[in-house]
Amino acid sequence: MNEPATSEGEAAGPPTLIEWAGGPDAIRRLIDAFYDRVEGEPLLSPLFPGGVSAEHRDHVSRWWSEVLGGPTDYTDQLGGYERMLAHHRNLAITPEQRYRFAELMSRAADDAHLPSDPEFRAAIVGYLEWGSRLALENSQVDAEPMPHAPVPRWGWGVAPPYTPGS
User: In terms of pTM, does the model score above 0.70?
Assistant: First the structure.
């Protein structure tokens, strides 16, 4: 794979997922497109009585930006994993809601004009599956989730971005 060279001439690694997506503004477009869909979705909108606030959209954008390799604003300013966990406790998310969440987020990536290459989308869907299944488990009334953990830092997995000539 041809990777960008650093100033020292050494090969740099692949870009982070947030870099590939187009930065924090692209992630905010994704989150806005997602919650626009959620507000019209009978299965998910009850989780957000009164709609999804701008503040909530901002916080979730910060979470996703951090997860995808961006700044650690969610951890540094909003409480990290423990805060995200607190928002999901006792919601009793159903398997159908989890599935619809993942479906709408995938569609929102199209709405937000995120890169459509299979490597990027596979990485995003990988995080969607992993994260939404943890949220499902941790949201149950009898759940005993891990009380402390770092915000995950998601990467390319087994399929880094394709670059011509590699």
Answer: yes
